[in-house]
Amino acid sequence: MSIDYSLYLISDRSILQGRDLLAAVEASLKGGTTLVQLREKDISSREFYNLAIELKQLLQSYNIPLIINDRLDIALAVDAEGLHIGQDDLPIETARKILGPGKILGYSVSNVEEALYGEGHGADYLGAGSVYPTGSKSDAGNPIGLQELTKIRQSVSIPIVGIGGIGINNIAEVKKTGVDGVSVISAILGSQDIEGASRNLINLWRGQ
């Protein structure tokens, strides 16, 4: 399965204000979302597992990979295509070893040092940010800005997605750094027209 990082949706049911997550994800796929990560911090393991199973089935019908955030056990249990971990999760070397060579492993970074470490220890791609201030992730830290994002891009050869505060007003600026895509949460899930929001973002990314 080839990976297109252009428009990478990360789930957050709290932003949906009661709307159904699977319906929202499908609307975003119709609009042009190219990759999906299941990131749900406040549900039980059983709920997370069941949601992952349902989401994987949906994504398979669109030939889109499922990435699981943080939960290596869930990623293995549902045979997801990949796992994404951050600086405070399992060590990347351990995650890579357990996950095996055939799965996608993403790694969150905020500077060149972390990026080089991730590339050297098994990451397939990097999530770099937070690029701009964001309300979606309470643990995002201070924004790194476009200059640091550019430095990270120039320091490694694996794909990079910019994350944090990215939307229609700044996606073109992020693309100029040379990254391979953008990760978004509220720019899609916070919209009343999820399919339309996704279409606008992917069209801007592709320069259409």
Question: Can you tell me about this structure?
Answer:
The protein has 208 residues and is an alpha/beta fold. The protein has one domain (7-196): Aldolase class I (TIM Barrel, Alpha-Beta Barrel). Helix content is 40%, strand content 17%. The protein has helices at 21-31, 45-61, 72-77, 92-99, 112-120, 145-155, 171-175, 186-189, 194-205; strands at residues 7-10, 35-38, 66-69, 82-85, 104-109, 125-129, 160-163, 181-184. The protein has an eight-stranded parallel beta barrel, surrounded by five helices. Helix 1 (21-31) runs parallel beside helix 9 (194-205). The relative contact order is 0.17. The mean pLDDT is 95.
List the keywords:
208 residues; TIM Barrel; eight-stranded parallel β-barrel
Helix and strand topology:
Elements: E1 7-10, H1 21-31, E2 35-38, H2 45-61, E3 66-69, H3 72-77, E4 82-85, H4 92-99, E5 104-109, H5 112-120, E6 125-129, H6 145-155, E7 160-163, H7 171-175, E8 181-184, H8 186-189, H9 194-205
Parallel strand pairs: 1-2, 1-8, 2-3, 3-4, 4-5, 5-6, 6-7, 7-8
Helix pairs in contact: 1-9
State the strand order across the main sheet. 1-2-3-4-5-6-7-8
Counting DSSP E segments of at least 2 residues, the number of strands comes to: 8
CATH topology: TIM Barrel
Specify the biggest β-sheet: 8 strands, parallel, barrel
Shape verdict: globular
CATH class: Alpha Beta
CATH evolutionary superfamily: Aldolase class I
| Secondary structure: helix percent | 25-40%
Please give the radius of gyration in angstroms.
16 Å
Proportion of beta-strand residues: 15-25%
Q: Based on the structure given, which CATH architecture is correct?
A: Alpha-Beta Barrel
What letter string, H or E per element, gives the SSE order? EHEHEHEHEHEHEHEHH
